[in-house]
């Protein structure tokens, strides 16, 4: 289908994969948007951003780049210097400044359960993979989803390397020059809403608060999520 709409590139965060975007993809495609759901390696911020930047270079025309959680840090780096990217959309996401990591930002405000939610798997050589413990995935990561849906997401989650969450962002970050939009999850127990609001205000973003939403706001509120993405696309 020929369309003048920008391509929407969706970037998942840690403890997830692209399958979580199914409802978003269905709605965007139905509205005539080309969509790419990127596979985020979750190995390191610099390498993850380089993989995404290579994918973006393969796309013709304007792009709206969307990141959830750690994916927000990845898009902030990957889009730097890319004139095709017309908007950045952050979904309950990290929006780091140079020198900040996901790990440092999540501890900036009280309320995160991430430290007591993680289940580490040692890899050797001092490296570790991190999962959300399935026993607390529902209350801590996806509280506004049905329990059976949260259980499926817990089972299919992909781990993030501990090094990725601790790696600081490099300079400069794309949100300094590209318009940004932030969907803030009001009852987030992973990235507290206060932290999301701080990052959004600092970046000068257009923001929307979803009261009562968990960290998986794009799954529990797909229509609201798509509306913000399409607002960014029309800007």
UniProtKB/TrEMBL annotation:
Origin superkingdom: Bacteria
Domain AB hydrolase-1 as annotated: residue spans: 8-227
Example GO molecular function: catalytic activity
Pfam family, one: Abhydrolase_6
Name listed for the protein in its UniProt record: Pimeloyl-ACP methyl ester carboxylesterase
């Amino acid at each position: 289908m020929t369309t003048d709409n920008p391509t929407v590139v969706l970037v998942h965060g840690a403890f997830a994969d692209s399958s979580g975007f199914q409802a978003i993809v269905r709605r965007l495609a139905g509205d005539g948007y080309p969509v790419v759901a990127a596979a985020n390696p979750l190995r390191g911020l610099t390498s993850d951003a380089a993989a995404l930047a290579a994918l973006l270079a393969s796309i013709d025309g304007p792009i709206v780049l969307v990141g959830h959680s750690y994916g927000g840090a990845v898009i902030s780096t990957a889009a730097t210097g890319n004139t095709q990217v017309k908007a950045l959309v952050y979904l309950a996401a990290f929006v780091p400044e140079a020198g900040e990591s996901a790990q440092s930002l999540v501890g900036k405000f009280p309320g995160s359960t991430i430290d007591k939610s993680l289940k580490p798997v040692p890899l050797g050589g001092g490296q570790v993979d991190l999962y959300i413990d399935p026993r607390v995935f529902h209350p801590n990561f996806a509280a506004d989803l049905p329990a059976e849906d949260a259980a499926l997401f817990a089972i299919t989650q992909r781990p993030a390397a501990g090094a990725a969450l601790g790696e600081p962002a490099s300079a400069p970050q794309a949100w300094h020059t590209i318009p940004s939009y932030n969907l803030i999850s009001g009852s987030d127990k992973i990235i507290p809403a206060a932290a999301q609001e701080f990052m959004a205000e600092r970046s000068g973003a257009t923001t929307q608060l979803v009261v009562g939403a968990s960290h998986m706001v794009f799954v529990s509120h797909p229509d609201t999520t798509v509306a913000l993405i399409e607002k960014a696309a029309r800007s």
